[in-house]
Amino acid sequence: MLRFHFTSEDLTKVTVATEPHALWEIAVSLHRLQTREGRWAYAPWFRTARDSLREAGLERTVKTFLLPLFPRASYFPDFLTPPEGTQGLDAGLEAVVATPYERVVREVDTLTRAVGAPAWAHRLTERDMREQLVGALRAYYGAVIAPHEESIQERLHAERARHAHTLFHAGTDGMLTGLGPTIRWRPPVLEIDPYPDHRDVHLDGRGLLLIPSHFCWHAPIALADPGLPPVLLYSLHHLPATAPHADSPPLSVLLGPTRAAILRASATGSTTTEAARRAGVTPTTASHHTAVLRDAGLITSHRHANTVLHTLTPLGAALLRTEPGGR
After folding, report:
1. Does residue 267 lie within any of the structural domains?
2. Same domain, residue pair 186 and 121
């Protein structure tokens, strides 16, 4: 179990990443390639990722160079997911190259003790080797993550809208309570269970950065070094990739299949375009149906620049829970 211990000051310093963290998304997408867990949630991505890696000539690079540094295990080096990653891919990769020699030595040694590092990993102390790594990470990102950037961005903005709504109505307590089934808020401690090891992180006024992640599945992840700025990467709530719920007709009968599909899409936050895609209709038609759902008190809509984000109200969430398999 992982425990974050909050002070009253820390409760005023809980923030949510404004952009996807490019390096964390690389790390956890590599984890997805190492397991079948949650495969249904990423079915469209899996259908194209392996083909894209093969077409880009990256299969061997991923297998022999990247996967050994990002094992789906209890540890991988913290310097591979620097905080600058929230500023975009370039900023994150520049931070990896600029990692001090002593830190690389320390974290590669930890990887060796924890799960076993390849013999060449110690050469990451050399700037040239880190630049080779950065080149591989950039190529990997371009092949399998960049094509999905728009969707990932939209989902993160929807998650921020959900948090903003909760924060307005229920405060920080409500926001921390709603982070996911494996995260429990027991004031003044945020517990993550299960977790690969047992440790306590005392925030001591540093606050906590929450990083919603598209490719993180089920289990949240924190940096291993408690002395680094505290972050918690957690999974955006995934719904099955298959749109229809053929085994649960009551909601479709009540609302109609299009509005039911849009309501389900709003469970994780969706833009009008995403809702339209989910329901198989045009954005104009989806906009009409979101207005009806909003007037019925089932969803709320928030505008961010030119994008409108739709999220569930408590009434909408309660209605979804009446479906077979609903939560």
Report:
1. yes
2. no
My answer on whether 122 and 185 are in the same domain is no
Scored b (16 or more CB within 10 A) or e, 89-125 reads: beebbebbeebeeeebeebbebbeebeebeeebeebb
CA dihedral angle for residue 66, residue 22, residue 205, residue 172, rounded to 10 degrees: -120
Packed helices 257-265 and 272-279: angle between N→C axes, nearest 10 degrees: 130
Give the span between the Cα atoms of 47 and 50, in whole angstroms: 7
Residues 12-22: pLDDT tens digits?
A: 999 999 889 99
193 lies in some domain: yes
Specify the number of domains making up the chain.
Answer: 3
Please report where in the chains the tokens 């992982």 appear, as a residue: 2
Tokens representing 232?
A: 């918690």
Structural domain span for residue 299 = 249-321
Comparing CA positions, the residue from 83, 110, 105 lying closest to residue 18 is 83
The rounded distance, in Å, linking the Cα atoms of 302 and 305 is: 10
E strand spans, the chain: 2-5, 14-16, 183-186, 189-192, 199-202, 208-213, 221-222, 231-235, 270-271, 299-304, 307-312
- Phi and psi for 2 in degrees, rounded to 5? -105, 135
Residue 234 dihedral angles phi and psi, to the nearest 5°:
-135, 160
Q: Is residue 240 part of a domain?
A: no
With 70 as the cut, is the pLDDT of residue 239 above it? no
Tokens of 8: 């009253």
DSSP-derived 3-state class of residue 323: coil
What pLDDT was estimated at residue 100? 97
Query: Do 8 and 103 fall into the same domain?
Result: no
- pTM here is 0.76
269: confidence class by pLDDT, cuts 50, 70, 90: confident
Q: What percent of the chain is predicted at pLDDT more than 90?
A: 63
Q: Is 38 helix (H, G, I), strand (E, B) or coil?
A: coil
Residue with tokens 């329901």: 279
